[in-house]
């Protein structure tokens, strides 16, 4: 299916996540390529998508669920948002709607937004800067330390599970209680995993008993934009139940087989 085609909402059954990786460019570095677009025209398109998103009951549900998640975290607001894997929002309408929701959350929380995708064009980087985003220059592969102050919202629309797995490894410890993850359902990812690729979700599997997941009903106008999406938190009282050895034993940096093309790795 093209990014410019949609499935209208006809049921509430959640579909599988979209795969958004160009297998011919597994080592991209953002800003290496560009297309000719008008920044002004693209922002008009984004604002139109923002109107559609803001009028959707899906967005109201997201706001309510995020408030529940903040209550679980024992905090009042999100201080920063980290976004990976947004994709080519100048070419893909799905990505544009996901960007529109991100802008709504940025405004709601008055939070700083840091963004990275190895596939971003130069023009897309300029547009994001115009929208007030901070660009993460290097491909962190999700291995980003949480801020030492406030609560971080990790915004991962339809991102590969390896990104989440890497993020969990990098922040493996009680400080996970300081983050909220918006992205593909952990439960679905673990349920779909088979023994042969368990390394792709090792840290998701370990943390699942100590996580609280808020599934989001997929009632957005187009089914393919936010399908299989949940909000995930790691309640401090649950993390306090584990023994110190839970965090220290077998805490090795994830490695993935060369045949795995979902995650765009850092260009050397």
Automatic annotation (TrEMBL):
- Tell me which domain of life the UniProt entry assigns to the organism this sequence originates from: Eukaryota
Q: Where is the SRR1-like domain?
A: 72-232
What is the annotated signal peptide range for this record?
Answer: none
- InterPro entries associated with the record: SRR1-like (IPR012942), SRR1L (IPR040044)
Q: Which GO terms describe its cellular component?
A: cytoplasm; nucleus
Task: Give the family this protein belongs to, as stated in its UniProt record.
Answer: Belongs to the SRR1 family.
Q: What is this protein called?
A: SRR1-like protein
């Amino acid at each position: 299916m093209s990014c410019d085609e949609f499935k209208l909402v006809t049921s509430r059954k959640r579909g599988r996540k979209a795969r958004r990786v160009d297998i011919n460019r597994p080592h991209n570095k953002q800003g290496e390529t560009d297309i000719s677009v008008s920044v002004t025209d693209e922002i008009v398109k984004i604002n139109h998508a923002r109107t559609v998103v803001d009028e959707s009951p899906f967005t109201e549900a997201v706001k309510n669920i995020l408030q529940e998640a903040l209550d679980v975290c024992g905090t009042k607001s999100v201080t920063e948002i980290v976004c990976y894997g947004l994709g080519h929002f100048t070419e893909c309408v799905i990505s544009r709607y996901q960007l529109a929701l991100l802008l709504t959350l940025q405004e709601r929380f008055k939070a700083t937004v840091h963004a990275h995708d190895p596939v971003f064009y130069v023009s897309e980087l300029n547009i994001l800067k115009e929208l007030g985003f901070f660009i993460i220059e290097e491909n962190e592969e999700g291995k980003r330390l949480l801020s030492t102050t406030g609560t971080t919202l990790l915004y991962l629309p339809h991102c590969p599970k390896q990104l989440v797995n890497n993020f969990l490894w990098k922040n493996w410890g009680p400080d996970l209680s300081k983050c909220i993850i918006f992205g593909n359902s952990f439960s679905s990812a673990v349920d779909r995993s088979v023994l042969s690729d368990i390394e792709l979700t090792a840290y998701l599997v370990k943390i699942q008993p100590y996580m609280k997941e808020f599934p989001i009903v997929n009632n957005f106008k187009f089914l393919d934009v936010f399908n299989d999406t949940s909000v995930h938190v790691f309640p401090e009282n649950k993390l306090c139940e584990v023994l110190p050895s839970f965090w220290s034993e077998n805490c090795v940096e994830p490695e993935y087989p060369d045949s795995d093309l979902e995650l765009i790795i850092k260009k050397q």
